Protein backbone atom coordinates (compact mmCIF):
# COMPACT_ATOMS: atom_id res chain seq x y z
CA UNK A 1 0.00 0.00 0.00
CA UNK A 2 1.26 3.45 -0.78
CA UNK A 3 1.26 6.15 1.80
CA UNK A 4 -1.65 7.85 0.17
CA UNK A 5 -3.83 4.83 0.47
CA UNK A 6 -3.31 4.54 4.17
CA UNK A 7 -3.99 8.19 4.85
CA UNK A 8 -6.89 8.81 7.13
CA UNK A 9 -9.04 11.88 7.24
CA UNK A 10 -10.62 13.16 10.39
CA UNK A 11 -13.39 15.66 9.98
CA UNK A 12 -13.71 18.08 12.87
CA UNK A 13 -16.78 20.28 13.25
CA UNK A 14 -16.46 23.40 15.38
CA UNK A 15 -19.66 25.13 16.47
CA UNK A 16 -18.83 28.83 16.90
CA UNK A 17 -16.26 31.08 15.22
CA UNK A 18 -15.57 33.44 18.11
CA UNK A 19 -12.28 33.60 19.96
CA UNK A 20 -12.64 30.03 21.32
CA UNK A 21 -13.67 28.52 17.97
CA UNK A 22 -10.95 30.25 15.97
CA UNK A 23 -8.24 29.36 18.52
CA UNK A 24 -9.37 25.74 18.37
CA UNK A 25 -9.29 25.75 14.57
CA UNK A 26 -5.76 27.18 14.60
CA UNK A 27 -4.59 24.61 17.16
CA UNK A 28 -6.15 21.66 15.33
CA UNK A 29 -4.78 22.94 12.04
CA UNK A 30 -1.36 22.05 13.42
CA UNK A 31 -2.33 18.41 13.93
CA UNK A 32 -2.00 17.82 10.21
CA UNK A 33 1.69 18.70 10.30
CA UNK A 34 2.33 17.00 13.62
CA UNK A 35 0.68 13.65 12.89
CA UNK A 36 1.97 12.49 9.52
CA UNK A 37 -0.33 10.12 7.71
CA UNK A 38 -3.44 11.87 8.94
CA UNK A 39 -5.55 14.43 7.19
CA UNK A 40 -7.66 16.90 9.09
CA UNK A 41 -10.63 18.69 7.73
CA UNK A 42 -11.66 21.40 10.19
CA UNK A 43 -14.89 23.31 9.50
CA UNK A 44 -16.44 26.10 11.59
CA UNK A 45 -20.11 27.09 11.81
CA UNK A 46 -21.40 30.31 13.33
CA UNK A 47 -24.84 31.85 13.58
CA UNK A 48 -23.50 35.34 12.86
CA UNK A 49 -24.25 36.93 9.53
CA UNK A 50 -20.83 38.54 9.44
CA UNK A 51 -17.61 37.98 11.37
CA UNK A 52 -17.56 40.69 13.96
CA UNK A 53 -16.90 40.90 17.69
CA UNK A 54 -18.79 42.95 20.24
CA UNK A 55 -17.42 46.41 20.92
CA UNK A 56 -15.83 45.63 24.25
CA UNK A 57 -12.33 45.10 25.51
CA UNK A 58 -10.65 41.82 26.34
CA UNK A 59 -7.58 41.21 28.46
CA UNK A 60 -5.16 38.37 27.91
CA UNK A 61 -2.98 37.36 30.82
CA UNK A 62 0.44 35.67 30.52
CA UNK A 63 -1.02 32.17 30.15
CA UNK A 64 -3.15 33.23 27.20
CA UNK A 65 -0.38 35.23 25.55
CA UNK A 66 2.05 32.32 25.83
CA UNK A 67 -0.50 30.08 24.18
CA UNK A 68 -1.05 32.59 21.37
CA UNK A 69 2.67 32.33 20.73
CA UNK A 70 2.52 28.51 20.72
CA UNK A 71 -0.31 28.78 18.21
CA UNK A 72 1.92 30.87 15.97
CA UNK A 73 -0.31 33.93 16.24
CA UNK A 74 2.69 36.18 16.80
CA UNK A 75 0.97 39.15 15.21
CA UNK A 76 -1.38 39.31 18.23
CA UNK A 77 1.60 39.78 20.56
CA UNK A 78 2.75 42.91 18.76
CA UNK A 79 2.51 46.19 20.60
CA UNK A 80 0.21 47.93 18.16
CA UNK A 81 -2.74 45.54 18.45
CA UNK A 82 -2.98 45.64 22.26
CA UNK A 83 -1.90 47.82 25.16
CA UNK A 84 0.62 47.18 27.95
CA UNK A 85 1.16 50.04 30.39
CA UNK A 86 4.55 51.57 31.28
CA UNK A 87 4.53 50.26 34.88
CA UNK A 88 4.62 46.63 33.70
CA UNK A 89 2.07 45.60 36.33
CA UNK A 90 -0.99 43.48 35.56
CA UNK A 91 -3.35 45.79 37.46
CA UNK A 92 -3.22 48.88 39.66
CA UNK A 93 -5.95 49.52 42.25
CA UNK A 94 -7.06 53.06 43.07
CA UNK A 95 -9.34 54.47 45.75
CA UNK A 96 -12.68 55.58 44.33
CA UNK A 97 -12.82 58.93 46.15
CA UNK A 98 -9.19 59.99 46.55
CA UNK A 99 -7.78 58.37 43.38
CA UNK A 100 -4.68 57.28 45.35
CA UNK A 101 -3.03 53.99 44.44
CA UNK A 102 -3.87 51.53 47.21
CA UNK A 103 -2.33 48.38 45.80
CA UNK A 104 -1.14 46.58 42.65
CA UNK A 105 -0.87 43.09 41.24
CA UNK A 106 2.58 41.90 40.24
CA UNK A 107 3.84 39.31 37.82
CA UNK A 108 5.49 36.35 39.50
CA UNK A 109 7.39 34.88 36.57
CA UNK A 110 6.84 36.81 33.36
CA UNK A 111 10.21 38.22 32.31
CA UNK A 112 9.30 38.74 28.66
CA UNK A 113 7.25 41.89 28.07
CA UNK A 114 5.30 40.36 25.22
CA UNK A 115 3.79 37.85 27.69
CA UNK A 116 2.69 40.54 30.12
CA UNK A 117 -1.02 41.25 30.42
CA UNK A 118 -2.28 42.94 27.27
CA UNK A 119 -5.61 44.66 26.58
CA UNK A 120 -7.32 44.48 23.22
CA UNK A 121 -10.45 45.64 21.54
CA UNK A 122 -12.17 42.28 21.07
CA UNK A 123 -12.60 42.94 17.37
CA UNK A 124 -8.84 43.43 16.93
CA UNK A 125 -8.00 40.13 18.62
CA UNK A 126 -10.73 38.34 16.72
CA UNK A 127 -9.61 39.61 13.33
CA UNK A 128 -5.99 38.72 14.08
CA UNK A 129 -7.04 35.12 14.83
CA UNK A 130 -9.19 35.13 11.71
CA UNK A 131 -6.09 35.81 9.65
CA UNK A 132 -4.83 32.34 10.65
CA UNK A 133 -7.92 30.37 9.64
CA UNK A 134 -8.76 29.62 5.99
CA UNK A 135 -11.81 31.74 5.20
CA UNK A 136 -13.51 29.03 3.18
CA UNK A 137 -13.70 26.79 6.27
CA UNK A 138 -15.95 29.28 8.12
CA UNK A 139 -19.67 28.97 7.42
CA UNK A 140 -21.88 31.85 8.53
CA UNK A 141 -25.64 32.02 9.21
CA UNK A 142 -25.45 28.51 10.65
CA UNK A 143 -27.29 28.65 13.97
CA UNK A 144 -27.11 25.29 15.73
CA UNK A 145 -30.47 23.73 16.51
CA UNK A 146 -29.24 20.41 17.94
CA UNK A 147 -26.71 17.62 17.64
CA UNK A 148 -27.15 13.97 16.68
CA UNK A 149 -24.52 11.32 17.38
CA UNK A 150 -24.51 7.97 15.61
CA UNK A 151 -22.04 5.55 17.07
CA UNK A 152 -22.65 2.78 14.63
CA UNK A 153 -20.11 0.00 14.17
CA UNK A 154 -21.49 -0.64 10.74
CA UNK A 155 -21.09 2.95 9.66
CA UNK A 156 -18.17 3.78 7.51
CA UNK A 157 -16.22 5.75 10.05
CA UNK A 158 -12.69 7.02 10.11
CA UNK A 159 -10.32 4.41 8.83
CA UNK A 160 -13.19 2.31 7.67
CA UNK A 161 -14.18 0.97 11.05
CA UNK A 162 -12.02 -1.21 13.23
CA UNK A 163 -10.84 -0.87 16.79
CA UNK A 164 -12.95 2.07 17.75
CA UNK A 165 -15.88 1.50 15.46
CA UNK A 166 -17.35 3.99 13.04
CA UNK A 167 -19.96 6.56 13.78
CA UNK A 168 -20.55 10.22 13.11
CA UNK A 169 -21.75 13.40 14.69
CA UNK A 170 -24.15 15.72 12.91
CA UNK A 171 -24.90 19.37 13.57
CA UNK A 172 -28.47 20.29 12.66
CA UNK A 173 -28.90 23.97 11.85
CA UNK A 174 -31.96 26.13 12.21
CA UNK A 175 -32.11 26.70 8.45
CA UNK A 176 -32.78 23.00 7.92
CA UNK A 177 -29.26 22.15 6.69
CA UNK A 178 -26.75 19.95 8.51
CA UNK A 179 -23.05 19.07 8.68
CA UNK A 180 -21.57 15.68 9.58
CA UNK A 181 -18.12 14.86 10.89
CA UNK A 182 -16.15 12.53 13.14
CA UNK A 183 -15.97 14.84 16.14
CA UNK A 184 -17.64 18.03 17.30
CA UNK A 185 -16.16 20.81 19.39
CA UNK A 186 -18.77 23.11 20.92
CA UNK A 187 -17.24 26.60 20.99
CA UNK A 188 -20.60 28.31 20.95
CA UNK A 189 -20.32 30.41 24.07
CA UNK A 190 -22.04 30.86 27.40
CA UNK A 191 -25.45 29.90 26.01
CA UNK A 192 -24.06 26.96 24.02
CA UNK A 193 -26.60 24.92 22.07
CA UNK A 194 -24.14 22.03 21.98
CA UNK A 195 -23.99 22.02 25.78
CA UNK A 196 -27.76 22.31 25.98
CA UNK A 197 -28.15 19.22 23.79
CA UNK A 198 -26.11 17.04 26.15
CA UNK A 199 -26.77 18.75 29.50
CA UNK A 200 -30.33 20.03 29.09
CA UNK A 201 -30.76 20.70 32.81
CA UNK A 202 -27.84 23.13 33.07
CA UNK A 203 -28.98 26.66 33.90
CA UNK A 204 -27.39 30.09 34.11
CA UNK A 205 -28.09 32.64 36.81
CA UNK A 206 -27.37 36.31 37.18
CA UNK A 207 -24.35 36.92 39.40
CA UNK A 208 -25.74 40.15 40.83
CA UNK A 209 -23.73 42.35 38.48
CA UNK A 210 -24.56 44.02 35.24
CA UNK A 211 -21.59 45.45 33.36
CA UNK A 212 -21.63 48.64 31.43
CA UNK A 213 -18.92 48.75 28.83
CA UNK A 214 -17.67 51.08 26.18
CA UNK A 215 -14.83 51.27 23.69
CA UNK A 216 -14.05 54.47 21.82
CA UNK A 217 -11.30 56.49 20.24
CA UNK A 218 -8.61 57.47 22.73
CA UNK A 219 -8.62 61.07 21.47
CA UNK A 220 -11.77 61.58 23.58
CA UNK A 221 -9.83 61.25 26.86
CA UNK A 222 -6.67 63.07 25.76
CA UNK A 223 -7.23 66.17 27.85
CA UNK A 224 -8.25 64.60 31.16
CA UNK A 225 -5.85 65.82 33.88
CA UNK A 226 -4.01 63.20 35.99
CA UNK A 227 -5.21 60.29 33.89
CA UNK A 228 -3.08 57.23 34.74
CA UNK A 229 -1.10 55.83 31.80
CA UNK A 230 -1.58 52.28 33.11
CA UNK A 231 -4.79 50.30 33.22
CA UNK A 232 -6.59 51.29 36.40
CA UNK A 233 -9.18 49.73 38.60
CA UNK A 234 -10.96 52.02 41.06
CA UNK A 235 -12.77 50.37 43.94
CA UNK A 236 -15.73 51.94 45.66
CA UNK A 237 -17.86 50.54 48.46
CA UNK A 238 -20.38 48.90 46.13
CA UNK A 239 -19.09 49.16 42.59
CA UNK A 240 -15.88 49.52 40.70
CA UNK A 241 -14.70 51.34 37.60
CA UNK A 242 -12.09 50.15 35.14
CA UNK A 243 -10.36 52.15 32.44
CA UNK A 244 -7.55 51.36 30.06
CA UNK A 245 -5.97 52.18 26.78
CA UNK A 246 -6.35 49.41 24.19
CA UNK A 247 -4.38 48.75 21.03
CA UNK A 248 -4.76 50.88 17.90
CA UNK A 249 -5.53 54.07 19.78
CA UNK A 250 -8.73 52.83 21.37
CA UNK A 251 -9.83 53.31 24.97
CA UNK A 252 -12.23 51.39 27.21
CA UNK A 253 -14.30 52.25 30.26
CA UNK A 254 -16.17 49.63 32.26
CA UNK A 255 -18.60 50.18 35.12
CA UNK A 256 -20.90 47.84 36.95
CA UNK A 257 -23.85 47.78 39.30
CA UNK A 258 -26.31 45.41 40.90
CA UNK A 259 -29.77 45.96 39.45
CA UNK A 260 -31.30 44.99 42.81
CA UNK A 261 -29.67 48.04 44.40
CA UNK A 262 -31.68 50.38 42.26
CA UNK A 263 -35.23 50.88 43.48
CA UNK A 264 -37.79 51.00 40.73
CA UNK A 265 -35.64 49.26 38.15
CA UNK A 266 -36.85 46.10 36.57
CA UNK A 267 -34.16 43.70 37.76
CA UNK A 268 -31.85 41.29 36.06
CA UNK A 269 -33.91 40.65 32.99
CA UNK A 270 -33.85 44.31 32.17
CA UNK A 271 -31.13 44.14 29.56
CA UNK A 272 -30.19 41.71 26.89
CA UNK A 273 -26.48 40.90 26.49
CA UNK A 274 -24.80 43.60 24.38
CA UNK A 275 -27.84 45.82 24.34
CA UNK A 276 -27.34 49.56 24.00
CA UNK A 277 -27.56 51.34 27.37
CA UNK A 278 -28.13 54.86 28.63
CA UNK A 279 -24.86 56.76 28.95
CA UNK A 280 -26.42 59.22 31.41
CA UNK A 281 -27.29 56.39 33.75
CA UNK A 282 -23.62 55.31 33.56
CA UNK A 283 -22.41 58.85 34.28
CA UNK A 284 -24.81 59.20 37.23
CA UNK A 285 -23.42 56.04 38.84
CA UNK A 286 -19.99 57.70 39.06
CA UNK A 287 -21.06 61.31 39.60
CA UNK A 288 -19.61 61.53 43.12
CA UNK A 289 -16.38 59.64 42.42
CA UNK A 290 -12.97 61.35 42.06
CA UNK A 291 -12.51 63.85 39.19
CA UNK A 292 -10.59 61.41 36.96
CA UNK A 293 -13.30 58.74 37.04
CA UNK A 294 -15.99 61.36 36.69
CA UNK A 295 -14.24 62.87 33.66
CA UNK A 296 -13.82 59.40 32.11
CA UNK A 297 -17.50 58.61 32.57
CA UNK A 298 -18.43 62.00 31.11
CA UNK A 299 -16.11 61.45 28.12
CA UNK A 300 -17.60 58.03 27.40
CA UNK A 301 -19.77 58.59 24.32
CA UNK A 302 -22.02 55.51 24.48
CA UNK A 303 -22.39 52.33 26.53
CA UNK A 304 -23.62 48.78 26.10
CA UNK A 305 -25.08 46.53 28.79
CA UNK A 306 -23.95 43.04 29.78
CA UNK A 307 -25.91 41.28 32.54
CA UNK A 308 -23.41 38.82 34.01
CA UNK A 309 -24.49 35.18 33.99
CA UNK A 310 -22.79 32.13 35.42
CA UNK A 311 -23.71 28.48 35.89
CA UNK A 312 -22.63 25.45 37.88
CA UNK A 313 -19.52 23.59 36.72
CA UNK A 314 -20.26 20.66 34.41
CA UNK A 315 -19.66 17.14 35.66
CA UNK A 316 -18.21 15.97 32.38
CA UNK A 317 -16.91 17.54 29.20
CA UNK A 318 -17.10 14.43 27.02
CA UNK A 319 -20.41 13.49 25.37
CA UNK A 320 -21.13 10.32 23.42
CA UNK A 321 -17.37 9.81 22.97
CA UNK A 322 -17.05 12.28 20.13
CA UNK A 323 -18.24 15.65 21.39
CA UNK A 324 -16.54 18.10 23.74
CA UNK A 325 -16.69 21.81 24.63
CA UNK A 326 -14.21 24.70 24.77
CA UNK A 327 -14.37 28.25 26.11
CA UNK A 328 -17.44 29.67 27.84
CA UNK A 329 -19.50 26.73 26.57
CA UNK A 330 -17.40 24.46 28.83
CA UNK A 331 -16.92 26.73 31.85
CA UNK A 332 -19.75 29.10 32.58
CA UNK A 333 -17.83 31.44 34.84
CA UNK A 334 -19.31 34.64 33.43
CA UNK A 335 -16.67 37.23 32.71
CA UNK A 336 -14.93 37.01 36.05
CA UNK A 337 -11.30 38.03 36.29
CA UNK A 338 -11.12 38.89 32.61
CA UNK A 339 -10.08 35.26 32.26
CA UNK A 340 -12.35 34.12 29.42
CA UNK A 341 -10.06 34.81 26.47
CA UNK A 342 -7.00 33.25 28.07
CA UNK A 343 -8.97 30.21 29.25
CA UNK A 344 -10.31 29.63 25.74
CA UNK A 345 -6.80 29.76 24.29
CA UNK A 346 -5.53 27.27 26.87
CA UNK A 347 -8.53 25.02 26.20
CA UNK A 348 -7.63 24.99 22.51
CA UNK A 349 -4.04 24.14 23.29
CA UNK A 350 -4.93 21.36 25.74
CA UNK A 351 -7.26 19.86 23.15
CA UNK A 352 -4.49 19.95 20.57
CA UNK A 353 -2.01 18.28 22.98
CA UNK A 354 -4.52 15.58 23.87
CA UNK A 355 -5.51 14.73 20.29
CA UNK A 356 -1.90 14.80 19.17
CA UNK A 357 -0.91 12.41 21.93
CA UNK A 358 -3.65 9.89 21.26
CA UNK A 359 -3.64 10.06 17.47
CA UNK A 360 0.11 9.80 17.08
CA UNK A 361 0.29 6.86 19.44
CA UNK A 362 -2.58 4.95 17.85
CA UNK A 363 -2.19 5.41 14.12
CA UNK A 364 1.30 5.55 12.88
CA UNK A 365 2.50 2.26 11.59
CA UNK A 366 3.20 2.56 7.97
CA UNK A 367 4.03 -1.03 7.21
CA UNK A 368 1.67 -2.78 5.06
CA UNK A 369 -0.20 -5.58 6.70
CA UNK A 370 -3.70 -5.12 7.95
CA UNK A 371 -2.63 -4.52 11.47
CA UNK A 372 -0.86 -1.41 10.30
CA UNK A 373 -4.28 -0.11 9.41
CA UNK A 374 -4.78 0.34 13.08
CA UNK A 375 -7.55 2.77 13.04
CA UNK A 376 -9.06 5.24 15.41
CA UNK A 377 -12.63 6.00 16.11
CA UNK A 378 -14.82 6.82 19.04
CA UNK A 379 -12.58 5.04 21.60
CA UNK A 380 -9.57 7.13 20.61
CA UNK A 381 -11.55 10.34 20.44
CA UNK A 382 -12.97 9.61 23.86
CA UNK A 383 -9.48 8.98 25.24
CA UNK A 384 -8.22 12.25 23.81
CA UNK A 385 -11.22 14.24 25.08
CA UNK A 386 -10.84 12.68 28.52
CA UNK A 387 -7.20 13.75 28.65
CA UNK A 388 -8.32 17.21 27.62
CA UNK A 389 -11.04 17.28 30.25
CA UNK A 390 -8.65 16.16 32.97
CA UNK A 391 -6.23 18.90 31.98
CA UNK A 392 -8.81 21.69 31.99
CA UNK A 393 -11.86 20.87 34.07
CA UNK A 394 -10.32 20.95 37.57
CA UNK A 395 -8.70 24.29 36.78
CA UNK A 396 -11.79 25.99 35.39
CA UNK A 397 -14.06 24.43 38.01
CA UNK A 398 -11.97 26.14 40.66
CA UNK A 399 -12.79 29.45 38.99
CA UNK A 400 -16.49 28.74 38.45
CA UNK A 401 -16.90 27.66 42.09
CA UNK A 402 -15.29 30.86 43.29
CA UNK A 403 -17.59 32.98 41.11
CA UNK A 404 -20.68 31.26 42.50
CA UNK A 405 -19.43 31.47 46.07
CA UNK A 406 -18.83 35.18 45.65
CA UNK A 407 -22.39 35.75 44.67
CA UNK A 408 -23.60 33.94 47.75
CA UNK A 409 -21.41 35.75 50.21
CA UNK A 410 -21.16 39.37 49.10
CA UNK A 411 -20.60 41.82 51.92
CA UNK A 412 -20.39 45.57 51.41
CA UNK A 413 -17.66 47.27 53.48
CA UNK A 414 -19.20 49.79 55.84
CA UNK A 415 -16.18 51.99 56.49
CA UNK A 416 -13.34 53.35 54.41
CA UNK A 417 -10.96 51.31 56.52
CA UNK A 418 -12.81 48.12 55.64
CA UNK A 419 -12.73 49.04 51.97
CA UNK A 420 -8.96 49.52 52.03
CA UNK A 421 -8.52 46.29 53.94
CA UNK A 422 -10.57 44.49 51.34
CA UNK A 423 -8.49 45.99 48.54
CA UNK A 424 -5.27 44.94 50.22
CA UNK A 425 -6.53 41.44 51.01
CA UNK A 426 -7.90 40.68 47.58
CA UNK A 427 -7.23 37.11 46.48
CA UNK A 428 -4.03 36.16 44.74
CA UNK A 429 -5.01 35.08 41.23
CA UNK A 430 -1.59 34.09 39.93
CA UNK A 431 -2.75 30.46 39.76
CA UNK A 432 -5.12 31.64 37.02
CA UNK A 433 -3.12 34.32 35.20
CA UNK A 434 0.17 32.44 35.05
CA UNK A 435 -1.25 28.95 34.72
CA UNK A 436 0.95 26.57 32.75
CA UNK A 437 -1.32 24.42 30.59
CA UNK A 438 1.55 22.35 29.18
CA UNK A 439 2.84 21.41 32.63
CA UNK A 440 -0.68 20.48 33.70
CA UNK A 441 -1.15 18.32 30.61
CA UNK A 442 2.16 16.56 31.31
CA UNK A 443 1.03 15.87 34.87
CA UNK A 444 -2.30 14.46 33.70
CA UNK A 445 -0.53 12.24 31.21
CA UNK A 446 1.85 10.99 33.85
CA UNK A 447 -1.07 10.19 36.12
CA UNK A 448 -2.81 8.34 33.34
CA UNK A 449 0.28 6.25 32.63
CA UNK A 450 0.83 5.53 36.30
CA UNK A 451 -2.87 5.01 36.83
CA UNK A 452 -2.70 7.36 39.75
CA UNK A 453 -5.55 9.37 41.08
CA UNK A 454 -5.22 12.93 39.84
CA UNK A 455 -4.37 15.00 42.86
CA UNK A 456 -3.46 18.36 41.54
CA UNK A 457 -3.61 21.68 43.26
CA UNK A 458 -6.70 22.85 41.45
CA UNK A 459 -8.71 19.80 42.41
CA UNK A 460 -7.76 20.26 46.04
CA UNK A 461 -8.56 23.93 45.90
CA UNK A 462 -12.02 23.26 44.49
CA UNK A 463 -12.78 21.02 47.40
CA UNK A 464 -11.61 23.58 49.85
CA UNK A 465 -13.58 26.38 48.30
CA UNK A 466 -16.72 24.30 48.25
CA UNK A 467 -16.40 23.75 51.95
CA UNK A 468 -15.97 27.42 52.55
CA UNK A 469 -18.92 28.21 50.37
CA UNK A 470 -21.03 25.86 52.44
CA UNK A 471 -20.12 27.37 55.73
CA UNK A 472 -20.55 30.91 54.42
CA UNK A 473 -17.16 31.88 55.69
CA UNK A 474 -16.25 33.90 52.66
CA UNK A 475 -16.25 37.37 53.98
CA UNK A 476 -14.68 39.92 51.77
CA UNK A 477 -16.50 40.19 48.53
CA UNK A 478 -16.35 43.14 46.24
CA UNK A 479 -18.18 44.14 43.14
CA UNK A 480 -17.40 42.41 39.93
CA UNK A 481 -16.84 45.03 37.34
CA UNK A 482 -16.70 44.40 33.67
CA UNK A 483 -14.42 41.71 32.84
CA UNK A 484 -11.86 42.98 35.28
CA UNK A 485 -13.21 41.45 38.32
CA UNK A 486 -12.40 41.10 41.85
CA UNK A 487 -13.91 38.25 43.48
CA UNK A 488 -12.88 36.24 46.25
CA UNK A 489 -14.02 33.34 48.05
CA UNK A 490 -11.71 32.73 50.78
CA UNK A 491 -9.04 33.74 53.06
CA UNK A 492 -6.63 31.39 54.74
CA UNK A 493 -8.17 32.31 58.06
CA UNK A 494 -11.57 31.18 56.87
CA UNK A 495 -10.07 27.79 56.21
CA UNK A 496 -8.51 27.69 59.62
CA UNK A 497 -11.74 28.61 61.35
CA UNK A 498 -13.20 25.55 59.74
C1 LIG B 1 0.68 34.74 44.64
O1 LIG B 1 0.76 33.35 44.42
C2 LIG B 1 1.94 32.94 43.75
C3 LIG B 1 1.84 31.44 43.49
O2 LIG B 1 0.70 31.16 42.72
C4 LIG B 1 3.16 33.28 44.55
O3 LIG B 1 4.33 32.91 43.86
C5 LIG B 1 3.17 34.78 44.79
O4 LIG B 1 4.25 35.13 45.62
C6 LIG B 1 1.88 35.23 45.45
N1 LIG B 1 1.86 36.68 45.53
C7 LIG B 1 1.62 37.34 46.65
C8 LIG B 1 1.61 38.81 46.56
O5 LIG B 1 1.40 36.75 47.69
Please explain how this structure is put together.
With 498 residues, the protein is an alpha/beta fold. It has a domain at 10-156 and 164-205 and 310-363 and 375-450: FAD/NAD(P)-binding domain (3-Layer(bba) Sandwich). It has helices spanning 3-6, 19-29, 31-34, 62-70, 122-130, 193-198, 279-285, 291-299, 340-363, 378-408, 416-424, 430-433, 437-450, 457-470, 492-497; strands at residues 8-15, 38-45, 57-60, 91-95, 101-105, 118-121, 138-139, 144-150, 168-173, 178-181, 183-186, 204-217, 232-235, 240-245, 250-257, 275-276, 304-311, 318-319, 323-325. The strands form four sheets. An eight-stranded mixed β-sheet has the order 5-4-13-14-15-12-17-16, with helices on both faces. Strands 7-2-1-11-19-18 form a six-stranded mixed β-sheet. The chain has a three-stranded antiparallel β-sheet with strand order 8-9-10. Helix 2 packs parallel to helix 5 (122-130) and helix 9 packs antiparallel against helix 10 (378-408). The longest helix is centred in the C-terminal third of the chain and has 31 residues, at 378-408. The radius of gyration is 23 Å and the shape is globular. 2-acetamido-2-deoxy-beta-D-glucopyranose (NAG) is lined by residues 108, 428, 430-431.
